[in-house]
UniProtKB/TrEMBL annotation:
Family annotation (InterPro entries): GPCR_Rhodpsn (IPR000276), GPCR_Rhodpsn_7TM (IPR017452), Prostanoid_rcpt (IPR008365), Thbox_rcpt (IPR001105)
Spans through the membrane: 46-66, 78-108, 128-149, 170-190, 219-243, 282-302
Main location per the UniProt record: membrane
Signal sequence annotation: none
Subcellular location: Cell membrane
GO cellular component entries: plasma membrane
Topological type in the membrane: Multi-pass membrane protein
Gene this protein is translated from: LOC113075219
GO terms under biological process: adenylate cyclase-activating G protein-coupled receptor signaling pathway; inflammatory response; positive regulation of cytosolic calcium ion concentration
Top-rank taxon: Eukaryota
Disulfide bond is among the record's keywords: yes
Organism: Carassius auratus
This protein's name: Thromboxane A2 receptor
Domain G-protein coupled receptors family 1 profile: 57-340
GO terms for MF: prostaglandin E receptor activity; thromboxane receptor activity
Amino acid sequence: MENRFTSSFPVSCQNSRDYNLTTICPDNQTVNSTSPALLNPPAFGMSYFTMTLGALSNLIALAILAHSYARLRRRAKVPFLLLASVLLVNDLAGHVITGALALHLHLGRVKHHRVAVIVEPPQVYCKLFGGCMVFFGLCPLLLGSAMAVERCIGITQPLLHPTIVTMTRVRLTVLLITFTALVLAGLPLLNVGDYKPQFPGTWCFLPVNSLLSITDANLALAFSTLGLVTLTVSVVSNTISGLKLFQARFKDRCVKSSITRRHGSYSSSPLHSLDVEMMTQLAAITVVSCVCWSPFLIYILISVSRFYEGIRRPRRPCEKMLLLALRLASWNQILDPWVYILLRRAVLRRLLQLLQPDRLVFTHSGSYADSHRKKISLH
């Protein structure tokens, strides 16, 4: 989700205690026609920059993955590459579509920057915008979780991985993820809940700060809960995979020490580059997703929980906090492609050679699963 073009905005109020969908005004403050905010149109050069950067970054990362897929069509990495490619395509589409929708609203505000009252976007437009926000928000989280589970199976159960993780099942998983996100995003389009313009009027989402209906509260709760569950699954799966790789490395070093004492020399088996590359990328994706999405998801969860408890909070500070959390979440689509651009095998190999030139070497072939199969066949 792109930054929502909210660096500054015109303000006006007829009743300083009320904030409705057609008036944007600070609490307890009246702004006349000579206010600088009304004289100067909003500046959004930074938003143009981040939108362009995000689109270019995703295109570059997709080109890198396409090159990797061409080289490794018969390798165990193909399911991971397919999921990663779908993730980047989703990030690119979400970046462009939601950014364009937000830009349209913002340009409307620039056009009417001298007008005291700001007209809300059409209901159909807001529903489309809100549906895109939910869909393109959930898909990356669900895909990241699926990638983590796939790698966990590949590292902990290398012999069963080709049987469990087939390309047919991976494609079905992508369809299931898409269907799940579409259902949750499309319910308000069927009048089950609603999407509302959000502060400061340049994006639409499920209401979380205003007086909510039970349906709206349940939809927002489902969105935040599903997002937090996927983040938890990613963290747990990546932790298990990382521990398995460290355990394999520790066993290898123990064998090396034992043989060295007996024979005086030993050529240690290299660290398996495919597993290291994919695990490094997954760990980076998980960290980025947690840092970017957790504040937004947790804020929604807390807000809805307080609604169920009957606790009312000052609206304006809450709206600003939600906007800040959204801006942080929008950076997830910008940072995801850089994981694949910077954390490629060639870059990792050069970095590890600089850190441990005599002890840590990457090979051009093989993975933990392939190595495990070779050890089994030798016995």
